[in-house]
Structure formats: C-alpha cells, structure tokens
Amino acid sequence: MFCVSRMTDGSLVSVFRLSRIVLLGSVLAVQLDSNAVWVKAGVSEALMSATELIHHYGYPVEEHAVQTDDGYILTHFRIPNGRNSSGKRQPVILQHGLSSAADAWLFAGKDKSLGFILADAGYDVWLTNIRGNRYCLKHISLSPDFPKFWDFSWHEMGYYDLPATIDYILAVTQQPTVYYVGYSMGNTMLYVMTSTRPEYNEKLKIGINLSPVVYIGNLSHPIIRAQLQFVHVFQAISEAIEFRHIPHIEMSLVSNIETFCQEGTLTYKFCIFGYILSFGGDIEQLNKTLLPTIITHNCAGTSTKTLLHYSQLITSGKFRAYDYGSTENMKLYGQATPPDYDLKNVTMPMSLYYGDGDLIVSPKVSHGLVHYARKVRYKTRRSSLMNYNTL
Question: Which residues contact 229 (CB under 8 A, 6 or more apart)?
C-alpha cells in the first residue's frame, strides 16, 4: 500500500490513515432503493437503502436533491453529526466509484465504514451520488426509458454533477471549502472538474484520492485487456439496439445472490473465484462474511458510454475527452482527435492512495498523475500490506 501526499491537511488525513485499511479492504457497495426509513428487525443489510443503513446504525440522516445545469436531479445523503458530536462541522464529500452508490461508505458497519468513522470524528459527512445510478434516475425533461437520458460518461459527471454538488453543499453549510474523498471513478470526475473548471480548485480543502483512475493505458487487468479487442463490436451492437445503460441489481435477485455466495455453501467458491478474477488476488483483505452483501451492492447502474470512455483511455494511454470519431470530433472540439484534459490546471491540495496489487491503478500510474499536476511536492510511504488491490 502506498500513499502520495501533497499539501495535506493534517486532521482529515490522520483520520483517514486510521481507517483506510478498513475501507480499501472491502469492496465498494450499492444499495437497493426503498421508501422505508425504519427497518424491521432481521432485514438483510443487502436489502437496505442508504437512508435505512444510516438509521440502522443509529445516525441521523438527511436526503438532499441537487439539480445540475443540464437538468439531472441528484440525490445525496448527509450524516450531519456523529454519535458523540454536534455543532458546526467541516463538510466532507465521499464520492463512490464506477457503477456504485453512496452506500459504498456504509455497509461495513459503524466501526469500519468511513462514512460513520468521519461522522464520529467530527465531520459533516455528505454521501454523494452521480447521474445514472439507482438514486439519480430523474431529469427535469428526460426519462430514463429513453436513450437520450443515458448520453453521458464520467466527463459530464465531473463537469456538471460535482460542481453542482459542491456549490450546494457550501451554500447549505456556509463553509468556504469542502474536503473531498474520491474512490476510483470518483477521482476521474474530480480531475475532469479541476482541469476544465479550475475555479473549483479553490473550493476544495483537499482532494483525497483512493485508487485514482486517470492514466490507465498500462493497466494489467487480464480480463479487461482481453475484452478491449471487442470494444468496437460492443459499441456497434449497443448503438444498433439502443442498449445505453447497465441496470442496477433488482431486489428480486438479492436473496438468490445471498444464498449462492453464503460462506459454507457449495457455490461459495464460485463467488470467491469471480472476485479474484475481477479484482485481484488480495483475498486476505476480503471480509468473507460480507461477501453476499458486497456482491448484491456492487451494481447500482451506469451508462454504457461511461464504460466506453474508459476503454478509450486504455487504448490511447491518454486522459482526454470522449472520442466520437474524427467527423464528430471536428464539430465538437474543432480537431480530429479529442482534447487532453489539462492537468496543469489542477492546483488543489491532494493525497493519493494506491496499492501495488491494484490491477488498474499501478504505482507508476499514480506517480505519473502527480507528475502532470502543477507544482507538485509529494512523498511516498509503503506499508506491510503489499498486495492491496483496487478494492
């Protein structure tokens, strides 16, 4: 496990160092939506929404709706104070990764989930979501039943969703800056925002990057590498049949997944094997008891364009805007190839965390990110957990 730090704020980074092993040792989660606030005894946590999970563990919760400049309605969850703290506190955003949701920071419980740990440490915790996941399927004029709703990638999440969210939080809390903790795609979005809308650098007290997916041209993930040769076929088919999004897991499937992946069953090893193929062999850091919950929470939905945009980063080796082909690129960008994001505009304080067992974000990639950012001063530390993967 490595850490690269620059101009770090001591208080939050100290809290995060205490909890990062717990966070990175568990897979990011999603939750099934529910209108209930109070949860009956015996209900599986795999079936709980973010609001229900927060209530389940004894914390206050607020739901906030934020409208983006292009009309998407985002639902965020707030833990305004912890079990033993109250009063005005510094806000912190916890932003999930690809095909996940705010529940990612909650399902490991009050003593092991970063959302609860930061709330108890005295922070105003905002668990944010992005367009296309199960909490953000509303728009002022578009329906998710139509392809136009899904015409976005992580570019729009960074250009529209994050700025709207940050402005809203700062207005509600009356604070000049906010802490930002992003995981995986949560950092892709962050660097889109800070490079294309550099005025938002000044609104971030620090950007804490967990496994920052930015430059991924040399990723070592064998399955993703094998699939790249079929990307154009997938894109052509998805456009022909208007397959524009990856749906979230339906509630009716949860009990089957729990049964299939329960430790001690004959099928349990298939789930472990699938985990290793997808995320790497760091099985020692996996909480096997939580495996059914992890799997049922691991698909909150996203657009196919988001996945295609990542495939373009891998094949090009660059961090750049979406490639529509030379003709459309000329219309949109005024050039045949998509423009690179200018990371010299990124001036926020930042701290990077990654593991050398990560199949997507390698130490080389993370140091490359630091190299591209402006006026970077950093240091590196290595822990005894040398095989940490991206999750």
Answer: none
